[in-house]
Amino acid sequence: MCSMISVSTGNSSQIGGLQIVPYGENNIQPLLGLLNQEFPNWPSNRIKSYMDLVTSKKNDVAGILVAKNEAEYYVGLLIYTFQQIKDYKIGNSTNGKKDRIANIFVVENLIASSLILQNKVFLSLVDEGIKIGKDNSCDYIELPKFDDESYDLIKEKYRNQIVDSGSFRTYLDIKF
């Protein structure tokens, strides 16, 4: 598994007016607007249960990054887990070593409050996720499939690191 180094709540990233920080609180009330947008058919108690599961992990297996604007409003969030999978499932050549395990920073949910800012928010959150993945000895970051313009900035910036897995997810090689 990735080395599971804790993510410091003091470690933040300031990208284009957005502040990206780990969300370390148990109170999900400030995030409910974003979460209701992502899970419109879920009742609030189901959302709370899901978030309790994510926040109870204490950054060793899962966590949340939030994007805040200059007015301190939450404009995006990234829910992640650390996982391991066989390297050949990502689409890489393993030189005959099908048992090689890859450490993955998995983006479970990527949410932005505004379609206008979505590209910038997604890029900022993914940039910070890549830093966390690298700090935790991950080989790849797993993202949703890049099937719409919401991911254009990510595709452009990381085009040389995209690994086609042929699945419903996209992988970025973050080893270098």
Tell me the helix content: 10-25%
Helix/strand-derived category reads: alpha+beta
CATH topology: Aminopeptidase
Report on the biggest sheet. 8 strands, mixed
Q: Assign an overall shape.
A: globular
What is the spatial order of strands in the main beta sheet?
Answer: 1-2-3-4-5-6-8-7
Tell me the Rg in angstroms: 16 Å
CATH superfamily: Gcn5-related N-acetyltransferase (GNAT)
Strand content: 25-35%
Mean pLDDT: 82
Number of helices: 4
Task: Explain this structure.
By secondary structure, this protein is an alpha+beta fold. It has one domain: Gcn5-related N-acetyltransferase (GNAT) (Aminopeptidase, 3-Layer(aba) Sandwich). It contains four helices and eight strands. Strands 1-2-3-4-5-6-8-7 form an eight-stranded mixed sheet. It is globular. The two termini are 18 Å apart. The N terminus is likely disordered.
